[in-house]
């Protein structure tokens, strides 16, 4: 591992292999959740979907932790049924909420409404049970610089980035998204003790470096997390 940090709230942790990355990140997440449980009796873990975090989920599921005091939810979700192969909830239930972690509570971002726009109020009320600040927020990043479902050219990107009116969640439709989405807003995700951006591969590293160099947040929405100071952000990367 080769850490590199400066005066910004963004630290970079580069690992020689993905196995080393996932092992270290698992230890870090468990430690932070344990700290939260000791300090206030509960903890929150916000995760992202996709294939990249699956090895981390497997390690977390095997970790000794008072999972009954942990609430897990997602940074974003496709507006599909939870048994749909594209559902992030399905991925989390099958890969994280097993073993020891089966005792955790899961807060789904999918509501009974037919569209994410109709579901915003229901979900916002549901999210109110989470104690703020959130404890650990685990994000990924797409090759277009999106994170969660904060997509460039997303129809509600400005509102999701600004969190106008205390918005916790926001429907999102975007050219790069095959299905309508629900995403947590950037301010809600940033009201956290720790944000982790997990990426692998040289392409993602180049996008991260471009984003960190500065520029409009709307072009590379991951910049919302890199161009702020209150919340510590750790970039975990391996080839």
From TrEMBL:
Taxonomy, superkingdom: Bacteria
Catalytic reactions on record: 6-phospho-D-glucono-1,5-lactone + H2O = 6-phospho-D-gluconate + H(+)
One of the record's GO molecular function terms: 6-phosphogluconolactonase activity
SUPFAM superfamilies xrefs: NagB/RpiA/CoA transferase-like
Any single Pfam family the record assigns to this protein: Glucosamine_iso
GO annotation (BP), single: carbohydrate metabolic process
Residue ranges of domain Glucosamine/galactosamine-6-phosphate isomerase in the record: 17-227
UniProtKB keywords: Hydrolase
Functional pathway: Carbohydrate degradation; pentose phosphate pathway; D-ribulose 5-phosphate from D-glucose 6-phosphate (oxidative stage): step 2/3
Enzyme class: hydrolase
E.C. numbers: 3.1.1.31
CDD domains registered for this protein in UniProt: 6PGL (cd01400)
Function: Hydrolysis of 6-phosphogluconolactone to 6-phosphogluconate.
Family named by the database record: Belongs to the glucosamine/galactosamine-6-phosphate isomerase family. 6-phosphogluconolactonase subfamily.
The name this protein goes by in its record: 6-phosphogluconolactonase
Species assigned in the record: Acanthopleuribacter pedis
